[in-house]
Amino acid sequence: MTGNPDKWLTIDTHHHIVPDFFWQETENAHAPVGGLAPLRWSKEATTSFMAVAGIDVAVVSLSTPGVHTGDSAKARALARRCNEFSAELVRSRPDRFGGFACLALPDVDASLEELSYALDVLGLDGFVLFTNSNGVYLGDPVLEPVSEELERRKTVVYVHPNPSPDAVAHSLGLPDNLLDFPTDTNRAVAQMHYTNRFARTPSVKYIFSHAGGSIPCLAARFAIIDEMGFIAGGEQRGAAADMFRRIYWDTALAASDPVLRMLRDVAGINQVLYGTDFPCLRRDLAVRSKQRILQSTELNDSERRAILGGNASRLVPRRFRPSPNVIWKESKNANLTSSRTQPRKPHGRLYIQSARKIRPRWPLCHPLSHHERQVRRDRWPRSVQRHHGASRGPEGCDLRSRYCE
What we know:
Layout: E1 11-16, H1 20-26, H2 43-53, E2 57-61, H3 72-92, E3 97-102, H4 108-121, E4 126-130, E5 132-133, E6 136-137, H5 144-153, E7 156-160, H6 180-194, H7 197-200, E8 205-208, H8 219-228, H9 234-237, H10 240-244, E9 248-250, H11 257-266, E10 272-273, H12 283-294, H13 301-315, H14 317-320, E11 327-330, E12 350-353, H15 370-378, H16 382-387
Helix pairs in contact: 2-12, 3-4, 4-5
Protein backbone atom coordinates (compact mmCIF):
# COMPACT_ATOMS: atom_id res chain seq x y z
CA MET A 1 0.00 0.00 0.00
CA THR A 2 1.41 3.39 -1.02
CA GLY A 3 0.60 6.68 0.64
CA ASN A 4 -0.71 7.24 4.14
CA PRO A 5 -4.23 5.80 4.59
CA ASP A 6 -4.72 7.99 7.67
CA LYS A 7 -4.88 10.99 5.33
CA TRP A 8 -7.52 9.48 3.04
CA LEU A 9 -10.95 11.07 3.22
CA THR A 10 -13.41 8.62 4.83
CA ILE A 11 -17.17 9.18 4.52
CA ASP A 12 -19.60 6.80 6.21
CA THR A 13 -22.84 6.86 4.20
CA HIS A 14 -24.55 4.12 6.26
CA HIS A 15 -24.56 5.64 9.72
CA HIS A 16 -27.70 5.66 11.83
CA ILE A 17 -29.09 7.97 14.46
CA VAL A 18 -31.50 6.50 16.99
CA PRO A 19 -32.76 9.35 19.19
CA ASP A 20 -34.57 8.25 22.32
CA PHE A 21 -37.87 9.75 21.15
CA PHE A 22 -37.66 7.82 17.86
CA TRP A 23 -36.93 4.55 19.65
CA GLN A 24 -39.84 5.06 22.05
CA GLU A 25 -42.27 5.86 19.23
CA THR A 26 -41.37 2.98 16.92
CA GLU A 27 -39.64 0.12 18.71
CA ASN A 28 -40.42 -2.60 21.18
CA ALA A 29 -37.37 -3.06 23.41
CA HIS A 30 -38.25 -6.72 23.96
CA ALA A 31 -38.64 -7.46 20.24
CA PRO A 32 -36.72 -4.83 18.25
CA VAL A 33 -37.28 -4.63 14.51
CA GLY A 34 -34.59 -6.66 12.77
CA GLY A 35 -34.03 -8.85 15.82
CA LEU A 36 -31.15 -6.90 17.36
CA ALA A 37 -31.37 -3.76 19.47
CA PRO A 38 -28.83 -1.07 18.51
CA LEU A 39 -26.38 0.44 20.95
CA ARG A 40 -27.70 3.38 22.97
CA TRP A 41 -27.23 6.37 20.66
CA SER A 42 -25.88 9.79 21.53
CA LYS A 43 -23.91 12.44 19.70
CA GLU A 44 -20.97 11.82 22.03
CA ALA A 45 -21.03 8.08 21.37
CA THR A 46 -21.12 8.72 17.64
CA THR A 47 -18.24 11.20 17.57
CA SER A 48 -16.20 8.91 19.82
CA PHE A 49 -16.79 6.01 17.44
CA MET A 50 -15.86 8.14 14.43
CA ALA A 51 -12.59 9.15 16.07
CA VAL A 52 -11.64 5.56 16.84
CA ALA A 53 -12.76 4.24 13.44
CA GLY A 54 -10.99 6.97 11.46
CA ILE A 55 -14.17 8.41 9.92
CA ASP A 56 -14.09 12.04 8.81
CA VAL A 57 -17.76 12.52 7.90
CA ALA A 58 -20.88 10.51 8.75
CA VAL A 59 -24.05 10.96 6.70
CA VAL A 60 -26.68 10.12 9.29
CA SER A 61 -30.09 8.55 8.72
CA LEU A 62 -32.84 6.83 10.65
CA SER A 63 -32.92 3.07 10.73
CA THR A 64 -35.69 0.50 10.57
CA PRO A 65 -38.69 0.73 10.77
CA GLY A 66 -38.82 4.39 9.69
CA VAL A 67 -41.44 6.77 11.04
CA HIS A 68 -44.66 5.24 9.72
CA THR A 69 -45.89 2.32 11.81
CA GLY A 70 -49.59 2.64 10.98
CA ASP A 71 -50.71 6.10 12.13
CA SER A 72 -50.23 8.77 9.44
CA ALA A 73 -50.69 11.71 11.80
CA LYS A 74 -48.04 10.40 14.19
CA ALA A 75 -45.76 9.55 11.27
CA ARG A 76 -45.99 13.09 9.89
CA ALA A 77 -45.11 14.63 13.28
CA LEU A 78 -42.32 12.13 13.92
CA ALA A 79 -40.75 12.72 10.49
CA ARG A 80 -40.63 16.46 11.12
CA ARG A 81 -39.13 15.99 14.57
CA CYS A 82 -36.50 13.51 13.31
CA ASN A 83 -35.52 15.72 10.37
CA GLU A 84 -35.13 18.79 12.54
CA PHE A 85 -33.05 16.72 14.94
CA SER A 86 -30.80 15.61 12.05
CA ALA A 87 -30.49 19.15 10.73
CA GLU A 88 -29.48 20.44 14.16
CA LEU A 89 -26.82 17.73 14.41
CA VAL A 90 -25.45 18.73 11.00
CA ARG A 91 -25.48 22.43 11.92
CA SER A 92 -23.62 21.71 15.14
CA ARG A 93 -20.76 20.02 13.27
CA PRO A 94 -21.01 20.63 9.51
CA ASP A 95 -17.42 19.41 9.16
CA ARG A 96 -18.35 15.99 10.58
CA PHE A 97 -21.98 15.29 9.64
CA GLY A 98 -24.29 15.18 6.65
CA GLY A 99 -27.89 14.04 6.85
CA PHE A 100 -30.53 12.08 4.95
CA ALA A 101 -34.10 13.13 5.76
CA CYS A 102 -36.94 10.68 6.34
CA LEU A 103 -40.43 10.76 4.79
CA ALA A 104 -43.76 9.57 6.12
CA LEU A 105 -44.32 7.03 3.33
CA PRO A 106 -46.72 5.62 2.26
CA ASP A 107 -48.56 8.87 3.04
CA VAL A 108 -47.91 10.69 -0.24
CA ASP A 109 -49.19 14.16 0.69
CA ALA A 110 -47.28 14.23 3.97
CA SER A 111 -44.15 12.97 2.21
CA LEU A 112 -44.29 15.67 -0.48
CA GLU A 113 -44.65 18.35 2.18
CA GLU A 114 -41.75 16.98 4.22
CA LEU A 115 -39.61 16.55 1.11
CA SER A 116 -39.79 20.26 0.36
CA TYR A 117 -39.19 21.21 3.99
CA ALA A 118 -36.16 18.94 4.32
CA LEU A 119 -34.46 20.36 1.23
CA ASP A 120 -35.58 23.98 1.14
CA VAL A 121 -35.65 24.81 4.85
CA LEU A 122 -33.40 22.31 6.61
CA GLY A 123 -30.86 21.90 3.79
CA LEU A 124 -30.38 18.16 4.26
CA ASP A 125 -28.47 16.10 1.71
CA GLY A 126 -31.04 13.59 0.47
CA PHE A 127 -33.50 11.05 1.81
CA VAL A 128 -33.60 7.68 3.48
CA LEU A 129 -36.43 5.53 2.13
CA PHE A 130 -37.26 1.97 3.10
CA THR A 131 -37.70 -0.99 0.80
CA ASN A 132 -41.31 -1.16 1.96
CA SER A 133 -43.39 1.04 4.22
CA ASN A 134 -46.32 -0.80 5.75
CA GLY A 135 -46.15 -3.24 2.85
CA VAL A 136 -46.00 -0.61 0.10
CA TYR A 137 -42.81 -1.13 -1.92
CA LEU A 138 -40.86 1.65 -3.59
CA GLY A 139 -41.93 0.59 -7.08
CA ASP A 140 -45.65 0.81 -6.25
CA PRO A 141 -47.62 3.18 -8.54
CA VAL A 142 -49.16 4.92 -5.51
CA LEU A 143 -45.73 6.46 -4.78
CA GLU A 144 -45.32 7.92 -8.27
CA PRO A 145 -45.88 11.57 -7.18
CA VAL A 146 -43.07 11.28 -4.65
CA SER A 147 -40.77 9.68 -7.22
CA GLU A 148 -41.53 12.46 -9.70
CA GLU A 149 -40.57 15.10 -7.15
CA LEU A 150 -37.38 13.26 -6.22
CA GLU A 151 -36.53 13.15 -9.93
CA ARG A 152 -37.29 16.83 -10.39
CA ARG A 153 -35.02 17.67 -7.46
CA LYS A 154 -32.26 15.28 -8.65
CA THR A 155 -31.91 13.99 -5.10
CA VAL A 156 -29.83 11.32 -3.41
CA VAL A 157 -32.02 8.48 -2.11
CA TYR A 158 -30.52 6.01 0.33
CA VAL A 159 -32.60 2.81 0.53
CA HIS A 160 -32.58 0.73 3.71
CA PRO A 161 -34.39 -2.60 4.15
CA ASN A 162 -37.48 -3.09 6.26
CA PRO A 163 -38.94 -6.42 7.38
CA SER A 164 -41.16 -8.13 4.84
CA PRO A 165 -44.91 -7.61 5.37
CA ASP A 166 -45.36 -11.36 4.82
CA ALA A 167 -45.66 -13.12 8.19
CA VAL A 168 -44.33 -16.36 6.68
CA ALA A 169 -40.98 -14.66 6.11
CA HIS A 170 -40.59 -14.33 9.89
CA SER A 171 -41.59 -17.86 10.85
CA LEU A 172 -38.12 -19.45 10.73
CA GLY A 173 -37.05 -18.27 14.16
CA LEU A 174 -34.16 -16.27 12.67
CA PRO A 175 -33.43 -12.54 13.05
CA ASP A 176 -34.69 -10.49 10.13
CA ASN A 177 -31.32 -8.88 9.59
CA LEU A 178 -29.85 -12.26 8.64
CA LEU A 179 -32.06 -13.20 5.67
CA ASP A 180 -35.18 -11.05 5.45
CA PHE A 181 -33.45 -7.67 5.17
CA PRO A 182 -31.25 -8.69 2.20
CA THR A 183 -34.24 -10.39 0.58
CA ASP A 184 -36.43 -7.32 0.95
CA THR A 185 -33.71 -5.27 -0.75
CA ASN A 186 -33.85 -7.77 -3.61
CA ARG A 187 -37.62 -7.30 -3.88
CA ALA A 188 -37.32 -3.52 -3.98
CA VAL A 189 -34.56 -3.47 -6.61
CA ALA A 190 -36.35 -5.98 -8.84
CA GLN A 191 -39.70 -4.19 -8.57
CA MET A 192 -38.19 -0.76 -9.20
CA HIS A 193 -36.40 -2.07 -12.28
CA TYR A 194 -39.24 -4.04 -13.84
CA THR A 195 -41.89 -1.39 -13.12
CA ASN A 196 -39.51 1.09 -14.82
CA ARG A 197 -39.20 3.23 -11.70
CA PHE A 198 -35.44 3.46 -12.22
CA ALA A 199 -35.95 4.36 -15.88
CA ARG A 200 -38.37 7.17 -14.98
CA THR A 201 -36.02 8.62 -12.37
CA PRO A 202 -32.61 8.71 -14.10
CA SER A 203 -31.51 11.81 -12.14
CA VAL A 204 -32.12 10.25 -8.73
CA LYS A 205 -28.94 8.82 -7.23
CA TYR A 206 -29.97 5.64 -5.42
CA ILE A 207 -27.82 3.98 -2.74
CA PHE A 208 -28.72 0.44 -1.69
CA SER A 209 -27.64 -0.87 1.69
CA HIS A 210 -25.56 -3.95 2.46
CA ALA A 211 -24.16 -4.32 -1.06
CA GLY A 212 -27.68 -4.53 -2.43
CA GLY A 213 -28.74 -7.61 -0.47
CA SER A 214 -27.93 -10.52 -2.77
CA ILE A 215 -28.54 -8.62 -6.03
CA PRO A 216 -24.92 -9.04 -7.24
CA CYS A 217 -25.39 -12.82 -6.96
CA LEU A 218 -28.62 -12.57 -8.96
CA ALA A 219 -27.16 -10.54 -11.83
CA ALA A 220 -27.21 -13.55 -14.16
CA ARG A 221 -30.90 -14.17 -13.42
CA PHE A 222 -31.73 -10.55 -14.24
CA ALA A 223 -29.84 -10.93 -17.52
CA ILE A 224 -31.86 -14.04 -18.39
CA ILE A 225 -35.18 -12.28 -17.69
CA ASP A 226 -34.06 -9.37 -19.85
CA GLU A 227 -33.03 -11.74 -22.62
CA MET A 228 -36.37 -13.54 -22.55
CA GLY A 229 -38.18 -10.20 -22.73
CA PHE A 230 -41.52 -11.30 -21.33
CA ILE A 231 -41.91 -8.35 -18.90
CA ALA A 232 -43.35 -5.33 -20.68
CA GLY A 233 -41.46 -2.05 -20.92
CA GLY A 234 -38.05 -3.43 -21.80
CA GLU A 235 -37.27 -0.77 -24.40
CA GLN A 236 -37.78 2.02 -21.90
CA ARG A 237 -35.92 0.53 -18.96
CA GLY A 238 -32.96 -1.07 -20.75
CA ALA A 239 -30.91 -3.92 -19.37
CA ALA A 240 -30.50 -4.65 -15.68
CA ALA A 241 -26.75 -4.81 -16.25
CA ASP A 242 -26.77 -1.11 -17.17
CA MET A 243 -28.99 -0.25 -14.21
CA PHE A 244 -26.56 -1.96 -11.83
CA ARG A 245 -23.83 0.42 -13.00
CA ARG A 246 -25.95 3.53 -12.37
CA ILE A 247 -27.03 2.88 -8.78
CA TYR A 248 -24.76 2.92 -5.73
CA TRP A 249 -24.04 0.14 -3.24
CA ASP A 250 -22.64 0.46 0.27
CA THR A 251 -20.32 -1.93 2.08
CA ALA A 252 -22.15 -2.10 5.42
CA LEU A 253 -22.02 -5.73 6.68
CA ALA A 254 -20.52 -6.62 3.29
CA ALA A 255 -16.87 -5.52 3.35
CA SER A 256 -15.37 -8.88 2.38
CA ASP A 257 -13.21 -9.76 -0.62
CA PRO A 258 -15.79 -12.01 -2.35
CA VAL A 259 -18.45 -9.29 -2.14
CA LEU A 260 -16.06 -6.55 -3.27
CA ARG A 261 -15.08 -8.73 -6.23
CA MET A 262 -18.71 -9.14 -7.23
CA LEU A 263 -19.41 -5.43 -6.83
CA ARG A 264 -16.48 -4.59 -9.09
CA ASP A 265 -17.75 -7.00 -11.74
CA VAL A 266 -21.45 -6.10 -11.50
CA ALA A 267 -21.43 -2.39 -10.66
CA GLY A 268 -17.90 -1.03 -10.88
CA ILE A 269 -15.83 0.29 -7.98
CA ASN A 270 -16.91 3.88 -8.73
CA GLN A 271 -20.41 2.94 -7.54
CA VAL A 272 -19.35 1.50 -4.17
CA LEU A 273 -19.59 3.54 -0.96
CA TYR A 274 -18.25 2.89 2.50
CA GLY A 275 -20.72 2.24 5.32
CA THR A 276 -20.47 0.94 8.88
CA ASP A 277 -24.10 0.43 10.04
CA PHE A 278 -23.17 1.94 13.40
CA PRO A 279 -24.75 1.78 16.01
CA CYS A 280 -26.77 -1.19 14.75
CA LEU A 281 -23.52 -3.11 14.30
CA ARG A 282 -21.46 -3.82 17.41
CA ARG A 283 -18.88 -1.08 17.90
CA ASP A 284 -15.74 -3.20 17.55
CA LEU A 285 -17.03 -4.80 14.35
CA ALA A 286 -18.00 -1.42 12.93
CA VAL A 287 -14.52 -0.05 13.75
CA ARG A 288 -12.95 -3.03 12.00
CA SER A 289 -14.90 -2.45 8.77
CA LYS A 290 -12.53 0.26 7.54
CA GLN A 291 -9.54 -1.99 8.10
CA ARG A 292 -11.21 -4.67 6.01
CA ILE A 293 -11.32 -2.23 3.11
CA LEU A 294 -7.72 -1.13 3.66
CA GLN A 295 -6.46 -4.71 3.93
CA SER A 296 -8.48 -6.15 1.05
CA THR A 297 -6.36 -8.02 -1.47
CA GLU A 298 -9.01 -7.33 -4.13
CA LEU A 299 -8.43 -3.58 -4.17
CA ASN A 300 -5.61 -1.31 -5.19
CA ASP A 301 -4.93 2.00 -3.47
CA SER A 302 -7.01 4.12 -5.85
CA GLU A 303 -9.97 1.76 -5.40
CA ARG A 304 -9.64 1.86 -1.61
CA ARG A 305 -9.64 5.65 -1.64
CA ALA A 306 -12.64 5.72 -3.98
CA ILE A 307 -14.69 3.43 -1.74
CA LEU A 308 -13.72 5.10 1.53
CA GLY A 309 -14.59 8.62 0.46
CA GLY A 310 -13.91 9.58 -3.12
CA ASN A 311 -17.15 8.20 -4.54
CA ALA A 312 -19.29 9.74 -1.80
CA SER A 313 -17.65 13.14 -2.29
CA ARG A 314 -18.85 13.04 -5.91
CA LEU A 315 -22.31 11.90 -4.90
CA VAL A 316 -23.03 14.86 -2.61
CA PRO A 317 -20.76 17.58 -4.08
CA ARG A 318 -22.53 20.41 -2.23
CA ARG A 319 -21.18 19.11 1.05
CA PHE A 320 -18.00 17.27 0.22
CA ARG A 321 -16.47 19.04 -2.78
CA PRO A 322 -14.41 22.19 -2.53
CA SER A 323 -16.10 25.50 -3.18
CA PRO A 324 -14.31 28.75 -4.05
CA ASN A 325 -13.85 30.12 -0.57
CA VAL A 326 -11.07 31.59 1.50
CA ILE A 327 -8.13 29.22 1.91
CA TRP A 328 -5.33 30.00 -0.55
CA LYS A 329 -2.50 27.86 -1.79
CA GLU A 330 0.28 28.04 -4.33
CA SER A 331 0.72 25.54 -7.12
CA LYS A 332 2.62 22.36 -6.36
CA ASN A 333 5.91 23.95 -7.43
CA ALA A 334 5.62 26.89 -5.04
CA ASN A 335 7.77 27.17 -1.95
CA LEU A 336 5.58 27.35 1.17
CA THR A 337 8.44 27.97 3.61
CA SER A 338 7.77 30.85 5.98
CA SER A 339 8.77 34.22 4.52
CA ARG A 340 10.48 35.12 7.79
CA THR A 341 13.17 32.52 7.20
CA GLN A 342 13.21 32.34 3.41
CA PRO A 343 11.52 35.09 1.38
CA ARG A 344 10.58 33.84 -2.04
CA LYS A 345 9.74 35.28 -5.41
CA PRO A 346 6.12 35.50 -6.52
CA HIS A 347 5.95 32.47 -8.75
CA GLY A 348 3.42 29.72 -9.27
CA ARG A 349 -0.32 30.13 -9.77
CA LEU A 350 -2.58 31.01 -6.87
CA TYR A 351 -5.55 28.81 -6.25
CA ILE A 352 -8.57 28.96 -4.00
CA GLN A 353 -9.18 25.90 -1.89
CA SER A 354 -12.29 25.14 0.13
CA ALA A 355 -12.44 26.56 3.63
CA ARG A 356 -14.49 23.59 4.77
CA LYS A 357 -12.08 21.71 6.99
CA ILE A 358 -13.19 18.20 6.22
CA ARG A 359 -9.99 16.99 4.62
CA PRO A 360 -6.98 18.57 2.96
CA ARG A 361 -6.53 16.14 0.10
CA TRP A 362 -9.05 17.59 -2.33
CA PRO A 363 -7.80 18.77 -5.73
CA LEU A 364 -7.14 22.46 -6.10
CA CYS A 365 -9.33 24.50 -8.36
CA HIS A 366 -10.08 27.90 -9.93
CA PRO A 367 -6.78 29.25 -11.39
CA LEU A 368 -6.74 33.05 -11.09
CA SER A 369 -5.72 35.51 -13.77
CA HIS A 370 -2.85 37.92 -13.21
CA HIS A 371 -5.32 40.76 -12.60
CA GLU A 372 -7.33 38.72 -10.08
CA ARG A 373 -4.15 37.79 -8.23
CA GLN A 374 -3.09 41.43 -7.99
CA VAL A 375 -6.52 42.59 -6.81
CA ARG A 376 -6.64 39.93 -4.13
CA ARG A 377 -3.06 40.64 -2.99
CA ASP A 378 -4.01 44.29 -2.49
CA ARG A 379 -6.48 43.13 0.17
CA TRP A 380 -3.86 41.20 2.13
CA PRO A 381 -2.26 42.62 5.28
CA ARG A 382 0.70 44.87 4.50
CA SER A 383 3.13 42.48 6.14
CA VAL A 384 2.02 39.84 3.68
CA GLN A 385 2.08 42.20 0.70
CA ARG A 386 5.71 43.08 1.47
CA HIS A 387 6.75 39.49 0.95
CA HIS A 388 4.32 39.09 -1.95
CA GLY A 389 3.13 35.61 -1.17
CA ALA A 390 4.05 34.83 2.40
CA SER A 391 2.79 31.75 4.14
CA ARG A 392 -0.36 33.47 5.37
CA GLY A 393 -3.17 34.38 2.97
CA PRO A 394 -6.45 36.26 3.29
CA GLU A 395 -8.50 35.79 6.44
CA GLY A 396 -5.30 34.78 8.24
CA CYS A 397 -5.32 31.29 6.69
CA ASP A 398 -2.03 29.58 7.40
CA LEU A 399 -0.83 27.96 4.21
CA ARG A 400 1.44 25.71 6.21
CA SER A 401 -1.48 24.29 8.17
CA ARG A 402 -2.52 20.70 7.60
CA TYR A 403 -5.53 21.90 5.60
CA CYS A 404 -3.22 23.12 2.85
CA GLU A 405 -0.80 20.20 2.66
